[in-house]
Amino acid sequence: MCTGKCSKCIGITLFPLATCAIVSNLLLYFPNGQVLQLSEITDLVWFFHGIVGAGILVMLPAFMMLGAGGAGCCANRCGVNFHPFQMLLSVILSVLGFAGGVYCAVISSLGLIGGPLCNTGDGEYIYPFRNDTLEDNYLFNQTTWSTCKEPENIILWNIVLFSILLAIGVIEAVLCFTQVINGLIGFICGTCMRKRKVGMQ
Questions:
Q1: 5-40 core/surface letters (b: 16 or more CB in 10 A; e: else)
Q2: What protein family is recorded (predicted)?
């Protein structure tokens, strides 16, 4: 596959991932569909790791990848559609997308490990699991989930959404890193080697 087609495929794949990341991050603000006060929302949600990290920062290189991919092998040095600046810019933006994916994965991991902010029954919202060791973490001990009384199902809500964001962040980071390599190959080497070989035969 030529570098242009590869860029286009990666760009197309990143769009739904970035959209899912934004939606998942937004849902974290409304646990179990409830509208909470700002002080009752888990602090890590305010890092916007899904909206900015895995969302906006990934959509930017995705747009550029589609432009660099164009129609067919437009990254071909021997073709009239080759735009070296476009391919180089896609590399730079892919580095940004890689950073966004890693950022999302890191914050999501911390959100999973630390647990949610919740009401334990006395009316005060605290983080009941943040001092747990990895061995005693609530993720591996479902009986401790009853500690959180409100919002309803907050632990499951956070686990599912943070897990989705973690997976999306990792996939996006891998795809963006792949595009960095692909873009550098397209910018430095071009994709006209195949045409040259055909012409020599």
A1: bbbbbbbeebeebbebbbebbebbeebeeeebeeeb
A2: Belongs to the L6 tetraspanin family.
